[in-house]
Design a protein that fits this description.
heterodimer; A: alpha/beta; four-stranded mixed beta sheet; 21 helices; globular; B: about 425 residues; Rossmann fold; 3 domains; two-stranded antiparallel sheet; 12 helices; about 40% helix
Chain lengths: ~500, ~425
């Protein structure tokens, strides 16, 4: 292959050649990807994509308008740059590239998104189980059309109200252990039409006139419903809410499905970005080794790459916690290093990695872990030392913060555990589940907040969300906080 | 297989609908902000966008979150000095650690500020306002022309060729010309067959055969498609109705109209003009100033050139009438007029003006608005006001108000053009 031309400006022909070169190189490393669809967009379109959480199309809602205005504002005033790319977990895998990028950036971004993220989407177990890359675009089209149809039939305000309430509970619309049903837009629509048609045919006004049976007092069962607590609140609302009309249930379902679609991304931020960064780094370096790109290209590349993986110290300006790109990239590189060139310490900590082929070991890690487990499994003492990680404990009842552990022999395991925990869902979201539904009583719904290490809910917001839930439920809703021993610790209620 | 697609030409305003939803939802906040902006802005830059502030509390999207309290650990990079067991004083503000899990709660405190575009600003500014009798009647020298279908013609450019229509005429022609031939051919063939059977003389058979061949040849030569078959779609242009308006600004520029009054008048004119530009595709302005005689002038002269002299309102009205007759016929133009004066008029002038207004101008105009900027210490009605008040009593498309402070302009303006209740 002849060297690739390099210059500040890109052209479609050049992008094509770069893409071919990168694809070939990715083939050498046996990266398994969906087909790629690379699209060039401008900054306004990028802002549009930002507003809809990166999806190419979404249903209309004011909150997206708010996000759009916020980003636009920040961008226009220069507070915030725009991403170089956005990539969508779909088949074919769509990557949006900004037109402002230089030729080198486009190449970097193609390697990062279209080969890095793409192979992660295809290989990682969470994505495999929880999302259907083939169906998502169709489903989005369906969702958009359905929401707009509802707006026409029932009015924008009513639809907005339901969606507002669903959004408040969006994080609690996820099945973490059950795999979701595959979604097929066509089937769903057919099913919905069928139900409506059935109801229309079965409609008989006479039923209305039948005298009501006297309520039987014997049916009151003592058993609690649901038997097991339900973590997916939106699912429970959709299936059991006494008040919702069918179209409202469908809206709940749409929000729930989208939430489910995003769930793997929230659980794999470090891995996903680390993997993609590792591969753009590896692929471009390989291009350089093959003399396809020149020194000028490499210098520009390294400059940008370094910016991406910069980790600022806790006391430095601009510190915003652990940078997922930096951590992920460092860990991926570290796994490769341990495979290729292990030290004695590594051999003691990671016997299973030593002297294996790094390609295979890394691929195994990518496929079978999420952030929490990946860090717990692969964070090496050497990396802890390099990043100089330390843990600060903030405990109730102590006047001061305390340094819990640092990068020393006694601390490695604990630092690793703590960092892994930081990416645990429980650490980000309070544990709240549906505990009881008084089907035979006042139809009230009770949620249980299992207190985790004494961390309370944010009061204002909790009341607000409860109000939203109440709107969906139509009957009283309660939220009880339960401490580790099972004692009820706090209680709040919302009545319609 | 990889695809490379250029999406830059696709629509860019995908979020417009969401933005509009957002604005509708927070209309009250926005309206309040707009009111404030109107109060503090000078008229020349009224027609701009502006920043609107919405309190973060009203705009937040709630969710179950951790509050402050409970036991936390945070992992940070970049340790230089700490060892296990070191104590660190809590940062001010009590809760949480310095980063990590607390991220996100900080940004929610700021108010949400965003910029209204010029259009959005004006639309709120003009909300609920509607000029009376607003109908787009004038059909004249259209701004644009529209192409409409007008049947089929025999000549045209290939691009306009109507295939189905052409094939239809071709078929008709083939039937019309070929039908008799076919009949004739049939007869000739039968004759030939009969002659052959009967064993007629060879010459006769040969003659019949050649006749059949000739007929077949003629049928063969009938073209499938001929020039005369071609039909083209025809379009003609029709003028598209375009509503347009002319706005007359009449102002007394005699010595008694000081800067303050002129400023008031200017604001009033500007607002009316802005409103008209929203309603009509084209709005022309005519400035007429008058002392004891009226002149048509350009905008700068109108507002900034000083003149001295008496006051004859009648002269301005008359000039306006002449200009209407000459340039803006009422069948083609929507005529609006705004008059500003301090109300000083003498002798027979007020009565004469009022009569002229009622009899000659009001029938022409869609709306005639009069504002009076009295002297600050003036009490009682001016002579012009008294006369005009009678006009007002009888006519719906006439309005008058007194304005003495800049802040009063906007309410007057709203009042003048309040949406008519149906």
């Amino acid at each position: 292959m002849s060297p690739l031309p390099h210059g500040p400006e890109w052209e479609f022909e050049l992008l094509q050649r770069y893409d071919e070169a990168i694809a070939q190189t990715a083939g050498e490393f046996q990266l398994d990807t969906y087909p790629n669809q690379i699209e060039i967009i401008n900054s306004e379109q990028m802002l549009d994509a930002y507003a809809s959480a990166g999806l190419p199309l979404g249903y209309p809602h004011w909150s997206y308008g708010k996000a759009f205005i916020r980003h636009e504002q920040a961008y226009r005033r220069g507070y915030q740059g725009l991403a170089y790319e956005i990539v969508i977990n779909s088949n074919p895998c769509i990557a949006y590239l900004m037109e402002e990028n230089s030729l080198m950036m486009q190449a970097l971004v193609i390697a990062h998104a279209s080969y890095g993220h793409n192979s992660f989407f295809k290989g990682n177990y969470l994505f495999k189980q929880f999302t259907q890359a083939d169906a998502i675009l169709d489903y989005l089209v369906f969702a958009r059309r359905y929401v707009m149809e509802c707006e026409q039939r029932y009015g924008v305000a009513d639809v907005e109200e339901v969606i507002d309430s669903c959004h408040a509970l969006m994080e609690y619309g996820v099945d973490r252990y059950k795999r979701p049903q595959p979604l097929s837009a066509k089937e769903k629509e057919a099913r919905r039409n069928e139900i409506e048609e059935h109801q229309r045919r079965q409609f008989n006004d006479l039923w209305r006139t039948l005298p009501q049976a006297a309520p039987s007092s014997t049916t009151a069962s003592t058993s609690v419903f649901p038997e097991e607590p339900e973590e997916n609140i939106l699912y429970f609302v959709e299936k059991h809410s006494p008040r919702l009309a069918p179209w409202q249930r469908e809206l709940v379902r749409i929000v729930r499905k989208l939430s489910q679609y995003f769930y793997p991304q929230t659980q794999t931020k470090v891995m996903n970005e680390g993997w993609a960064t590792f591969w753009h780094y590896t692929l471009v370096n390989r291009l350089y080794e093959k003399k396809l790109v020149d020194d000028a290209f490499m210098l520009e590349f390294l400059h940008n790459h370094t910016n991406v993986v910069t980790q600022r110290g806790f006391d430095q300006e601009g510190y915003r916690g652990v940078n997922p790109y930096a951590l992920g990239f460092a860990m991926m590189q570290d796994v490769r290093r341990i495979c290729e060139d292990p030290t004695e310490e590594d051999a003691a900590w990671f016997p299973e990695l030593v002297d294996t082929e790094w390609r295979k070991s890394l691929d195994f890690a990518m496929r079978n872990f999420k952030d929490e487990s990946f860090i717990a499994q692969y964070l090496s003492p050497r990396l802890i030392r390099e990043m100089r990680l330390f843990v600060v404990a903030d405990h109730v009842g102590k006047a001061e913060l305390e340094v819990d552990c640092i990068h020393d022999e006694q601390g490695y395991k604990r630092v690793r555990r703590m960092l892994a925990d930081q990416y645990k869902r429980d650490n980000l979201l309070p544990d709240i589940q549906v505990a009881r539904y008084e089907r035979d009583g006042d139809r009230s719904l009770t949620l249980r907040n299992q207190l985790f290490r004494g961390r309370p809910l944010a009061e204002d917001q909790a009341n607000e969300v409860l109000r939203h839930l109440g709107r969906l439920w139509g009957f009283p809703v309660r939220l009880e906080a339960v401490d580790a021993e099972g004692r009820i610790d706090g209680y709040r209620e919302w009545r319609p | 297989m990889n695809y490379l697609i250029d999406r830059r030409l696709n629509g860019r305003n995908k979020s417009a609908v969401n933005r509009e939803r957002f604005i509708r939802r927070y209309k009250d906040h926005i309206r309040r902000s707009v009111k404030g902006m109107i109060a503090e802005r000078s008229i020349t830059d009224m027609a701009k966008g502006g920043d609107v502030k919405v309190p973060a509390k009203d705009i937040s999207e709630p969710g179950f979150r951790y509050g402050t309290g409970g036991d936390w650990e945070f992992v940070h990079p970049g340790n230089k000095e700490f060892v296990r067991g070191d104590k660190i004083p809590r940062p001010e503000g009590g809760g949480g650690g310095s980063g990590g899990g607390e991220a996100g709660s900080g940004e929610a405190v700021d108010d949400f500020v965003f910029t209204l575009s010029r259009e959005e600003f004006l639309s709120i500014f003009f909300e609920d306002l509607e000029l009376p009798n607003l109908m787009r009647t004038a059909i004249a020298e259209a701004e644009g022309k529209k192409l409409v279908r007008a049947g089929y013609v025999k000549e045209g450019t290939p691009a306009n060729l109507s295939v189905s229509r052409t094939m239809k005429t071709a078929l008709a022609r083939r039937i019309a010309l070929g039908g008799p031939l076919k009949d004739e051919l049939e007869v000739a063939r039968q004759a030939l067959a009969a002659a052959t059977r009967a064993g007629e003389p060879r010459a006769r058979i040969a003659a019949l055969e050649s006749h059949v061949l000739e007929l077949e040849g003629r049928l063969e030569r009938l073209p499938f498609l001929d020039d005369v078959d071609l039909r083209y779609r025809h379009r003609t242009t029709v003028p598209r109705p375009a509503a347009r308006a002319v706005m007359f600004c009449l102002m007394d520029v005699s010595a008694s109209m000081d800067e303050r009054k002129k400023d008031l008048a200017k604001r009033f004119f500007t607002l009316l003009y802005l409103f008209l530009t929203r309603k009509y595709e084209r709005v022309e302005l005519v400035f007429i100033r008058h002392t004891d005689e009226a002149q048509e002038v350009d905008e700068d002269t109108f507002f900034y050139d000083t003149q001295s002299g008496g006051t004859v309102v009648y002269s301005a009205l008359e000039l306006m009438h002449q200009i209407c007759e000459a340039r803006y016929h009422r069948s083609e133009w929507n005529i609006y007029a705004a008059q500003a004066s301090d109300g000083d008029a003498f002798g027979a002038d007020p009565a004469k003006s009022a009569r002229f207004l009622r009899e000659n101008l009001l029938p022409l105009t869609r709306y005639f608005a009069y504002i009076e900027c009295p002297d600050e210490n003036q009490s009682g009605n001016s002579s012009l006001w008294v006369e005009y008040e009678e006009v007002k009593g009888s006519d719906l498309n006439f309005a008058m108000r007194r304005v003495s402070q800049p802040q009063e302009i906007y309410p007057v303006f709203r009042d003048l053009f309040r949406k008519e209740k149906v």
